[in-house]
Amino acid sequence: MPYQHILVAVDLSEECHDVVEHAIALAQTHKARLSLCHAVEPIAMAFSGEVPMDLSLLQQQQQQQAEELLGTFSKHYPSVERGAWHLTYGQPRAEIHRLVAELDCDLIVVGSHGRHGLALLLGSTANDLLHGAPCDVLAKRLNT
Predict the structure, then answer these.
(1) Which of 43, 79, 83, 107 has the most CB atoms less than 10 A away?
(2) CA triple 76-79-85, angle to 5 deg
(3) Backbone angles phi, psi at 71, to 5 degrees
(4) Taking the CB of residue 19, how many other CB atoms lie within 10 A of it?
(5) pLDDT tens, 34-92?
(6) Long-range contacts made by residues 9-14, C-beta under 8 angstroms, separation at least 24?
(7) In terms of DSSP H, where are the helices of 33-109?
(8) DSSP assigned state of 90
(9) In this structure, are residues 107 and 3 in contact, taking their beta carbons and an 8 Å threshold?
């Protein structure tokens, strides 16, 4: 059965263009809708609770930078509707899984560095997405 709605998770790096182009081709082949998302991961506390820090300004700057990057990135793909771009704030796996359910997607496409050994054991976003994914996941190997 062909896919109906594909969600592409991007980190907005130059490497992601190959992933997006692959997903666009898949969407055309399956005559599927295409949505793209970028999850901004919250800044973790760098220090223990002993050093009080207000990270709200840094988080606001991080969000603003992501919005600007997404705007620049999306200009490469005028065929993808403006409303199909999603910027979320939170843990990437949880946010992507939430969007999949909300948008009723049946395929997640994500870039993968193909790490192995210690890097694989420590995890990656692509590997993390596989666990508990409510639909199929395609990990497109990045050319690095």
Answers:
(1) 107
(2) 75
(3) -60, -45
(4) 24
(5) 999 999 887 764 444 454 566 778 888 888 999 999 989 889 999 888 889 999 998 88
(6) 9/36, 9/37, 9/38, 9/39, 9/92, 9/96, 9/108, 9/109, 9/110, 9/125, 9/129, 10/36, 10/37, 10/38, 10/73, 10/111, 11/38, 11/111, 11/125, 12/38, 12/66, 12/69, 12/70, 12/73
(7) 56-74, 92-103
(8) S
(9) yes
Name, in order, each residue with C-beta under 8 angstroms of 26's C-beta and a sequence gap of 6 or more: 3, 6, 32, 107, 109, 138
* pLDDT (tens digit per residue) in 104-142: 999 999 887 554 443 433 345 666 677 778 899 998 887
| Numbers of helices and strands, H then E, in the chain | 5, 5
Q: Residue 12 is encoded by which pair of tokens?
A: 């907005």
